[in-house]
Each structure stands twice: as structure tokens, then as C-alpha cells.
Amino acid sequence: MFKKPWGGRFKKKIHKAAERFSASIDLDKRLYLEDIEGSVAHAIMLGQTGIITEKESEKIVKGLKRIQKEIEAGNFPFEEEFEDIHLNIEKRLIEKIGDVGGKLHTARSRNDQIALDERLYLRRGIGEIINLIKGLAEEFINFAEKNIDVVMPLYTHLQRAQPVLLSHYLLAYYEMFKRDRDRYLDCLKRINDMPLGAGAGAGTPFPIDRDYVAEMLNFPQVTKNSIDTVSDRDFIAEFISTSAILAMHVSRLSEELVLWSSKEFDFVDLGDEFTTGSSIMPQKRNPDIAELLRGKTGRVYGNLVSILTLMKGLPLSYNRDMQEDKEPMFSTLDTVTSSLEVLTQMIRNTKFKPENMKKALTNSFITATDLADYLAGKGMPFRQAHEVTGKLVAYAEKKGKELLKLNISEMQMFSSLFEEGVFEFITIEGSISSRKSYGGTARENVLKMTDEAKKEVAKW
Prior knowledge:
The chain is 60% helix and 5% strand. The protein is mainly alpha-helical. The strands form 3 sheets. Strands 1-2 form a two-stranded antiparallel ribbon. Strands 3-4 form a two-stranded parallel ribbon. Strands 5-6 form a two-stranded antiparallel ribbon. The longest helix is centred in the N-terminal third of the chain and has 37 residues, at 110-146. 39% of the residues are buried. The model has no long low-confidence stretch (mean pLDDT 93).
């Protein structure tokens, strides 16, 4: 009969209430693949170094692979009594191959074992996130290519500010998610340290080969300090922190879609597939998916606060508090992957309304900055040009005219520098085409940006 691994020290069994309270198997059973993968590598190393015989090593490896198939078939008897994924697998291994299964835990502790499982799990999860970011980035690029001549208002302070190309706007989100991808790749550098071999925190007296295990598990290096190894959850905090920034970007985009799909803006149609109705108002089509994406950002932020609070007061090295690291880690990965999946599909199915976007450029003096730039180009100090343009806008507003509806005589009431050519300068097309500085909204710039983005994503 399999006993608690610390049973020799205690005269009484743990209370059932305490056993239920301390069990984590409901959560950490999703680490079964990583736990088995790490255990197989450990068993092979034990055999190669002569710590156990090669025959015993082979028997353990075969047993672990049978257990993996059992779990994947849904036939594995997870038991709360055995607390976590490590003990459940070890107990089942001993049932299948006998006492030799107990040799698997030689030169290993659950402290370094869980650190390995979590690193393997996050490495796999980040790979999935990076692929999802690539898919989303491709949608932005595709939209930018197809909508290269669509114009829209750029907003500052949620007020119409300047005309820009929709393609330029969409590529701004491409840049955000590209930075997110870079942060995840950087995060992987710290995840990719192999922790097995630290033992409970002081190392092990057995002649293990940590580098060999690292090679089998595709880790470029091993951790350097056994105490830090079992104490460290920075890599989880960093993963959640990186995810919180990504979630913030998802939320900002979602907020735009919520606004743009309202009748007040009417810039996009999110379609029936990504909206829902009202239980009482038949006319409604609500942007619920975008709202949920915006709302789930709070969950990721909460997970970040949770892991930081969990770790902030812990002395070295391992403490049982750290069992609580899994829920925020799992929750964050689940939230980010599901959010990216649905957002990509929603963007793919979103239909923009170019005429409404163009209409929003009228009656807002949106090329006033171009008027000030025109005067500055004629030699007037920009601060003075700003003041003159402001007075001209106030005059036009009072007259109920757009800037293009003014005549040259009216313009020259405010400055003799105005000439007939000014009207070409302050058209929507003129404003956009003049913004040729690198990164600006001029059509030729945006085409280059789109081409650069396509080449970047092709290398991802």
C-alpha cells in the first residue's frame, strides 16, 4: 500500500479536513504531461549515471509512458488523498511496476520537480501564445493592405484630431502586439533554466548529471543556485506581467470596437457571429465579445497581484504557500489564449464602413493643424501660427463654415501669408499625403510599413 512519503515521522494520519484543504490535484493534474516528461528524463539519467540500474530505468520509463496513455484515455484514478500530480503518478507507477517505481524519486524532491513542471508548462504555453499573436498580426496586415485608401479621424482626448489612413491605425495595433511577442520571447530566456537537481533546496549527494537532463529536455542551461531554484517564481510573475500588458492591448482594441460599433460612431459592423441580442429590447445588437475581452483584462491583472502578493513575504527557500502559484498561472494562460483566439476571428469578420469614417472627418476643422503647419512653412513661428489658426477656426465656426468653404479674402483677414495654394494643403488627401515623416500616415509610408510588417511576420 502506498503511504504518504513523510509517513515515517508521524504517529497519526493527517486530518481529512486538512488533507482536503492542502490537496492540489484538482488543479495541478493538468501538469501530467510535463511531470511525466521530466520524470522520464530523470529516470534515464539515473540509469546512465549508475544511480539505479539501466534495467530499472527502462522499467520506470515504460511504466511512466503507460501512465501517460492511461491519463490521456481518461482512465487514470486521480485521488485527493495523494495531494498532487507528483504523488498520484508515483503511487500509480509503484502499483504498475512494483517497488522499483519508488526509485524514481532518488536524487529528486517535489520542490525541484514542480519547478521543472511549471517551466515546461509555461514554455509550451508561451509557444502557443506566440503562434496566436502571429495569426492576429497577419489579420492586421491583411486589413491594412485591403483598406489602404480608407481615411478616418485620429482621436486625441476622444476628440477628432487629424485625418489618418485606417491602415496606419490598424498597424499601430500590429506594433503593440509585436512588442508583446518580443516580451514573451524574452520571458522564455528566464524560463529556460533547468531546475531539476536542486533537490529540496541544498542539492543532492548523488552523482547526477544535470546537463544531460537539460539536454534531453531541451534546456540551454541549468539553474546555478539550488536555494534560488526551489524558491524562484519570478518566471511565473514575469509571464503574468507580460500577459497583463498584452491583455491591456486587447482591452484597448476591444474598447475601440465597442465605440466604433455604436450608432454614435458606426464605423464597423461586428456581425451576428460576434454580437448578442437583448433579452428585452429586440432592436439591440450588443458587442458582448469585445466587452468580455475588455473585462477579462481585470482577471489577468488580478492574477499578477495574486502572484506578487503570494511571494512578497516568503523567506528562502520553499514554502507551501507556493502551491498557490498554479491558479494564477493557469488562469492567465487560459485567458490569454482564449482571448487571442476569439479576437483574431472577430477581427477577420469585422466589416469597416469607409463612408461613415470619411463623413466623420467633416464639420470638425480636422485639418486645422495643417493650416498652422502651412503658416510655419511660410516662416511664421509655430506658436504664432497656432494662434492665428485658432482665431481663424473660431471665425469659421461662428460663420458656420468648414475651412475649405472659406475664401482667400477671409483667410487673409488673419494673415497675409495665405495664398490660393493653401486650399490644396488643407484637404483630407493633402493632409494625409503631407505626413511623410518616417512612421507618418502618408500613403507611401503606410505601404512601406505594411511591406515591412509582412516580411517581419514571415520570419516569426
